[in-house]
Amino acid sequence: MNYFELFNFEVGYDLDVKQLADRYRQLQRAFHPDQYASGSESERLLAVKKSAQINDAFSTLKSPVARAEYLLAMAGIELSHETKTLQDPVFLMQQMEYREHLEDIQQMSDPLNAIMEFEQTLEQEQSALQQAISAQLQNKDFDAAANSVRKLKFMIKLNSELERLEDQIAD
Amino acid sequence: MAYSEKVIDHYENPRNVGSFDKSDANVATGMVGAPACGDVMKLQLKISDDGIIEDAKFKTYGCGSAIASSSLVTEWVKGKSIEEASSIKNTDIAQELALPPVKIHCSILAEDAIKAAINDYKSKRS
Question: Residues in chain B with pLDDT < 50?
C-alpha cells in the first residue's frame, strides 16, 4: 500500500492539506498502540509498525518537496539523495541575486518590511514551481518535474535563511 | 562535525572572492548549484587568448566546505591551461581539504563549476 492509498487519496501531487491533517488524526487514533494494549504481542507490534508508517506517510505527503520526490520515486526517479549539480545559468543567477538581496536586508532602514516583501516574492516563486510540478507530473514529464523539484529546494533553502534572518533581527 | 584546518583557513580567509565583468570576451563564468543543500557557486576565470587561466574569482553561498572548495579551486586553476584545469577532479579537492563523506558534494560543486566556466568560454569563442 503506498502512502496515498494509506490516506485514501488518489495518487497525484495536488492534495487538500486540511483533509490530509484530518485523515492523519483519524488514522493515528485508529492505530494508536494504546488501543492494542490488551491485544496479543503480535497485534501490538503490528499497531506500532502501522503507526510508524502513518507518521512517515504524513510527513512525506505534507511536504511539497517530499511529496514530489515520492511520486518521482514511484516513477523510478530517485532524487532525494542525488549529488548531481544543477546547471541552469538563468535560474542560478537569480538565486545569486536573491542571496545578495538577503545580505543587503540587514543594512536596510526598514529590514522587517523588506523581509515581509521578500517572503511574498519567495511564496510566489514556490507556488509557481508547485503548479509547474503538478502539471509536469500529470503530463508524465518526469525529467521536467525533477528539475522543478530541484529549483523548489533552492527556494525553500532561501526561505529558511530568510526566517533565520528574521529571528536574528527580532532578537 | 569538525572542519579540517584547511577548510577553516579558506573559510576565514577566502582567496579571490569577487567577480569579473561577465561580458568581457576573456572572462568565462560558471554557475552551479547543489539542490540537496541549496548551495550556489559562481566561478569566473580570466583566460588569455592562448588559453591560459590568468586569474580567477568566486562567489559562493553555502556552507564552509563549499566556500573552501571554491576558494581552493581559484588558487589551483591560476596559471593552468584550460585543459589542465578541466582535469581537476572533485576527489583531489576533497582530499586536499579532508572533506568528510557528507561534504563530498561540495567538491563536486567546485569541479562542476570549473567545467561550466570552461564550457562558457568555449561557447563564447565559437
Answer: none
From B56, B66, B106, B114, active-site residue: B106
Q: What ipTM is given for this predicted complex?
A: 0.86
Domain boundaries, chain A: 3-62, 89-170
Helix/strand/coil for A5: helix
Residue A74's CB is within 10 A of a number of other CB atoms, namely 13
Give the strand order in the sheet containing B53-61.
B27-34, B39-47, B53-61
**pLDDT tens digit string along A116-163?**
999 999 999 999 999 999 999 999 999 999 999 999 999 999 999 999
**Which residues are within 8 A (CB) of A32 and not within 5 positions of it... i.e. 6 or more apart?**
A47, A51
What is the Cβ-side half-sphere exposure of residue A51, based on CA atoms within 13 angstroms?
A: 16
Do B38 and A83 count as a contact with CB atoms less than 8 A apart? no
Q: How many separate helices (H) and strands (E) can be counted in chain A?
A: 7, 0
Question: Which three cell numbers, joined as nine digits, stand for A25?
Answer: 488524526
What does pTM read for this prediction?
0.89
DSSP run (H or E) holding A9? none
**Closest chain A C-alpha to B55 CA, distance in angstroms:** 21
- Tell which CATH architecture fits domain A3-62: Orthogonal Bundle (1.10)
Per-10-residue mean pLDDT of chain A, 171 residues long, equals 95 95 94 82 88 96 96 92 87 95 91 94 97 97 96 95 91 76
Yes or no, beta carbons of A85 and B108 under 8 Å apart = yes
CATH 1.20.1280.20 is the classification of domain A89-170: yes
